[in-house]
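In response to reviewer comment 3 from the previous cycle, which asked for concrete evidence that the modeling workflow produces usable outputs, we include below a single protein chain processed end to end. The sequence was submitted unchanged, and the resulting structure tokens are shown without manual editing.
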Amino acid sequence: MSRTDLRLPAEWEKQSLVLFAFPRSEGDWGEYLDAASTAMINAANAVNKVCPTLLIVSDLKHFELYRDSYLVEVAQLANNDSWVRDYGPITCYQNGRRVMKHFDFNGWGGKFSADLDTLVTRRLADGKLSHLDYEKVPFELEGGSIESNGAGTILTTKKCLLNSNRNGGRYDQSAVEKVLRERLGGKLIHWLEHGDLEGDDTDAHIDTLARFLDAETIAYVRCDDPTDIHFHELQLMEDELRQLRTQEGRPYRLIPLPWPPVVHSPADGRRLPATYANFLISNGTVFVPTYFDSAAADHPGKQADQRALATIAEAVPYEVTPIPSRPFLEQHGSLHCLTMQMPAPLH
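The workflow returned the following structure tokens.
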């Protein structure tokens, strides 16, 4: 297939579908299974108001407990985890058509089982999404590890894409860039060396750290607490972002996002990777994860949630909708990680 006209769309472009994958009772949610399941149903229903959603369900018996609350379509497909961002299709425009790129997935560097997750895109192509073109790509790449501005610029991190636990360490930076050019239409690849979050299993996915809001605007995580373990590393990331230039040679407009109070798991006390960068843009709405919805109005976390919503609202001409996402943190991810958007037809 010719790749003379190949482009990975930006998230703010028109979408036809957003995928979610429902939690399994035999998964890793433990005592948070009900909270995560309820929160996902609520998130999917909210997104469905602006874009049709498709819920991938592996555990039908568990889903039946929530079926009456979910408003739209279901696809019964076996999977390991709910994080469809990382094993679902990365869909490009290619010669005027939509092509689902099916990259390999190894459970974030072999940390978790992925034998079922890695089959989901192929099964979608054979079933619910058979109207789209399909291409298998023999390269390990997760959707949360890349950001596209829709015009050929891809933002990513060295800690993830150059990690020896992806692709057996066989690809150096130039080889990875070749894949991003040939398979996703990348023209300019921005690599961040710094930035990560404690409790993150992904080896610094970009969608936890820095996100395009438009072709020349990047929202990013900033830590303003000098006593926090993240302070120095995120300062270095901020310096890197300031040095980046667009394809036209201009600096990006940078939007620092609030730093939430530390969130610990009640189960074992571990720190969880709360980040406001894990938002989803869909059809004119930015869905922003919030983590302190039940807190009092004067709680620092509640105030951080509100600042995050206001910061993004001031930066973009979109509606901004909060999505309560605290339960998702228990499995080390948030809203964007739980979704994968499908672009609309060009015509």
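The first helix runs from residue 33 to 48. We consider this sufficient to address the reviewer's concern, and the full set will be provided in the supplementary archive.
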